[in-house]
Design the sequence.
């Protein structure tokens, strides 16, 4: 019995050490970043003329991308979660494909799909939009790179809502929209918040597709890349810090809120 | 008046319902699991489409197989549905759950909660409630809907029996006060009798008999109905089968008109009485049970009277049914 107890203690200890190693390894890059930066270097980089422009570009483009994803992805995720779409596997493949495709390839294919020389590009030009090296192209690239994260997350969130509760709301007089607003969304909210937060982080950090179709205007990831190419590693680090400072608080806040909200349900 | 004449297709058999429920009446739909009881109330509540017929409530047509697009949606039919699963919204407090119904008066919701003994729990979330408390909340919420017909799909079955019967009695009084019609789905005769003014027996999707609960027990129209209302003894004599209800078989002396002689096989205490399991011998053959006030000894020969016991044609055996 004592031998068995000792065995359990050893295996628990080993698991804890393993978990600690993984945790430190995951946080390693962040710790390294902070270790290599001084307040002076950050101030010097950010006091350059136009230093905040990439930040403004990234935030506005990501907010727009998020709005588009929210608007189009939410109904899709709900219908998929409820199995209301014909040929559900086909829809799932459509959502997962951008996730499995390398971002660079997505960018390349987007040029052939919505670039100025394509029928879609021609149609966009009537709206004074060009999906190449424009702010609009940046939003398009960010949407493509991040939409699967939202749809899959939202789908999982909606799947946790018991359809019997939606039926109960309908029996109490709610129409579909009212049920959705009063029951479905509040119950799926913790999962939706997480999905939205991950999507935000992903949109802010979108790079591969952006590099191909939206080199200009510079967002933060592109600014990091260009600075790295032109002046080296050290001068790119302050922009990396800015990107993390802007991109991470929302996901962290959403994670904390959603964990609390789940406990309340 | 609810007038329901419809059919809903199911995998094993279709549920065919022909039923009328006058305003203010409480009807119990009695049947075994899988008989089509839930299908019936779900069709009434608008959760299922009809494959034939229609449902009318007063002047309004609720559902029609001919024009399913015109079916009234669940919340607008004036039909409520209370289920075994209370279906409380976990993100809302007890008071918010009770007052969930569109246009519900918060003060009325509070009063309804207090009337059902939920006063101290109005600010709580459903997560911490006991089964009985959750059902009270569900009941209070259902009573806020001001429906013309309330369907009850075995709502208190997951609770212990005394609590279930107490809530049913509470509900019965509320319905009586408001004059709301109700259909109670149940497989327990005792529950049906305690609640309903009329009883409809459902078997494999068909209503076999409708009548006063006591009338159905005294005069079941078929063997299936007899089984459902508690007959547990089947004595055969040639082409006739006598159905015996444990409460309607009386031990008597041989000279006092006893028509069935039987030996005691087993004795099981049932509350203050003893249920005897007996093997008939003589004119009638078969086993039956009798709830008696007095004990007996195993193997003892006794005489019994069963006044008014229903007699049905003996069901053909499997060999007789087999063709050729």
Sequence:
């Amino acid at each position: 019995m004592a031998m068995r107890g000792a065995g359990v203690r050893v295996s628990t200890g080993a698991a804890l050490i393993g978990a600690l190693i993984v945790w430190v390894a995951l946080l390693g890059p962040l710790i390294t970043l902070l270790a290599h930066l001084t307040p002076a270097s950050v101030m010097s980089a950010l006091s350059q003329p136009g230093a905040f422009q990439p930040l403004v570009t990234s935030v506005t483009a990501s907010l727009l991308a998020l709005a588009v994803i929210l608007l189009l992805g939410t109904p899709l995720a709900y219908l998929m979660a409820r199995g209301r779409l014909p040929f559900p596997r086909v829809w799932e493949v459509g959502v997962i494909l951008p996730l499995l495709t390398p971002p660079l390839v997505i960018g390349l294919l987007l040029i052939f799909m919505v670039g100025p020389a394509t029928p879609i590009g021609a149609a966009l030009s009537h709206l004074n939009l060009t999906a190449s090296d424009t702010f609009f192209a940046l939003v398009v690239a960010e949407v493509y790179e991040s939409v699967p994260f939202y749809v899959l997350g939202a789908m999982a969130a909606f799947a946790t809502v018991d359809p019997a509760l939606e039926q109960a709301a309908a029996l109490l007089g709610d129409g579909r929209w009212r049920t959705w607003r009063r029951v479905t969304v509040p119950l799926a909210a913790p999962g939706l918040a997480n999905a939205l937060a991950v999507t935000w982080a992903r949109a802010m950090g979108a790079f591969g597709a952006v590099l191909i179709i939206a080199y200009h205007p510079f967002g933060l990831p592109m600014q990091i890349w260009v600075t790295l190419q032109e002046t080296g590693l050290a001068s790119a680090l302050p922009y990396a810090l800015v990107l993390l400072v802007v991109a991470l608080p929302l996901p962290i806040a959403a994670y904390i809120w959603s964990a609390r909200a789940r406990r309340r349900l | 008046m609810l007038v329901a004449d419809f059919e809903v297709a199911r995998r094993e058999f279709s549920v065919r319902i022909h039923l009328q429920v006058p305003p203010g009446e409480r009807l119990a739909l009695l049947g075994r699991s899988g008989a089509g009881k839930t299908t019936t109330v779900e069709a009434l509540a608008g959760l299922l489409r009809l494959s034939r017929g229609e449902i009318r409530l007063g002047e309004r047509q609720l559902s029609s197989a001919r024009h399913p697009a015109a079916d009234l949606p669940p919340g607008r039919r004036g039909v409520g549905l209370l289920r075994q699963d209370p279906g409380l919204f976990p993100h809302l407090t007890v008071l918010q759950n009770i007052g969930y119904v569109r246009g519900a008066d918060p003060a009325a919701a509070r009063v309804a909660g207090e009337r059902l003994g939920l006063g101290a729990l109005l600010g709580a979330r459903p997560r911490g409630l006991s089964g009985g408390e959750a059902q009270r909340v569900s009941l209070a919420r259902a009573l806020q809907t001001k429906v013309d017909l309330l369907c009850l799909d075995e709502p208190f079955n997951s609770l212990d029996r005394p609590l279930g019967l107490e809530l049913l009695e509470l509900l019965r009084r509320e319905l009586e006060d408001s004059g709301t019609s109700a259909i109670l789905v149940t497989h327990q005769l005792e529950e049906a009798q305690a609640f309903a003014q009329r009883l409809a027996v459902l078997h494999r999707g068909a209503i076999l008999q409708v009548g006063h609960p006591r009338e159905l027990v005294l005069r079941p129209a078929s063997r299936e109905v007899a089984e459902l209302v508690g007959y547990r003894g089947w004595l055969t004599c040639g082409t006739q089968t006598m159905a015996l209800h444990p409460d309607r078989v009386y031990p008597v002396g041989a000279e006092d008109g006893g028509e069935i002689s039987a030996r005691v096989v087993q004795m099981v205490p049932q509350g203050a009485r003893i249920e005897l399991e007996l093997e008939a011998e003589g004119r009638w053959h078969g086993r039956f049970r009798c709830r008696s006030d007095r004990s007996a000894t195993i193997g003892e020969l006794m005489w019994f009277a069963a006044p008014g016991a229903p007699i049905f044609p003996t069901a053909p055996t499997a060999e007789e049914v087999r063709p050729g």
